[in-house]
Amino acid sequence: MGEHRIDCVPNEVWHATMGTFSDVHYEQTAIYGAGQRGERSSHMLVQRDGKPFAGARAGLYLVPYLGRGMALVRFGPFWRRFEESPDPERYRIAIEALLDEYCRRRKLYLVLRPRPHPDFYPIEAQILAGMGVVGSDSSMLDRYFVDATLDEAEQQKSLDQRWRYNLRKGLAHGLDVRIGDAPADIKVFQEIYAEMVRRKNLNYPGVELPASIPDLMRLPERMKMRIALARHDGRPIGGIAFSVVGDLAYYVFGATSDEATALNAGYVLQWHVMRWLRENTKVRWYELGGPGDPGIRQFKKGLAGKRGVLLAVREFHCCPDVTARVVVGGLFALRDARNRMQRWQRERRSSDRKLNN
After folding, report:
1. Cis ω on the peptide bond leading into residue 77 (within 30° of 0)?
2. H-state helical runs in 235-304
3. Of 230, 278, 224, nearest to 252 (Cα)?
4. 55 with 18: CB under 8 angstroms?
5. pLDDT tens digits, 202-240
6. In terms of CB atoms within 10 Å, which of 82, 190, 320, 343 comes out highest?
7. Is 238 strand, coil or helix?
8. What are the distances in angstroms from CA 247 to CA 158, 174, 204, 224?
9. Does the predicted TM-score (pTM) go above 0.85?
10. pLDDT per residue over 120-136, tens digit each?
11. If you ran DSSP here, which 8-state letter would residue 296 be given?
12. Phi, psi torsion values for 295, nearest 5 degrees
């Protein structure tokens, strides 16, 4: 039958175990789950014959005294081990274990956000639907992907025309871009990021996560983060925190100064990251994150280009308990109101910047 280890796996063991799977994500680490967003963290490691079989970390949102609330699994569970052929039955078993623990035993409203992957997300979504786990219509999880296996000439052709034009302008400035993982690189990136947050008055869930970069640097090699920094006349002006986590590369954080924007440094940084991925890894897909605001959407769409993918991703819900459905319905209403307010604030700031320029 196997064993389910629930809320009892030490963090270092959890991370070492994650390093043996190809479908892991930072959201499944203990680092991201350590009290982030005001939630409690819970985890489950499924074992078969004494070996890790699948696992997932959930954020718990519980209403005091009621014992009801939501369990949110972000970009999990992980189930595809390195050096083993993917067996979708393992995914079904992992989902059944989550339903048993969080829906049936704890009577919580379970929300599953499968890890976006152009090749495997459709398989997972089909299994979830077949198990009666209902998909939402939200587009908040849609993700842009660049095909990182293209050679430089093919990548140039794939780029949107405007993106290619801005890249040429940026390259003409002769920026010095270097990729590393030294503590000094982290410190410089965090300083640029903190200044950007102050300058743009950014306020959204996760804005503080770059503080976790030193911890992410200490993860197993297959999950380690790296920093790309751009300098102009010897001064650091922008950077990208990116990683190869399992079988995907991720654009995790970006930070730019006003000078970097004027010099098109964001285009040059992404170009160097893709070159590094091509020369140092075997991953096919480089995930850029969601569409975001109109300017961000245009940037990511242009970089994904003709050969990239915009993957439509849904989250999936399951809750047999009536009380939990009512409680979490209220939580969703509050979340939607907050998201609308933050979207309005971002659009207003974007409009104000355009007027001032």
Report:
1. yes
2. 258-262, 265-280, 294-304
3. 224
4. yes
5. 777 677 888 889 999 999 988 989 999 999 999 999 999
6. 190
7. strand
8. 22, 32, 28, 13
9. yes
10. 999 999 999 999 998 88
11. H
12. -65, -40
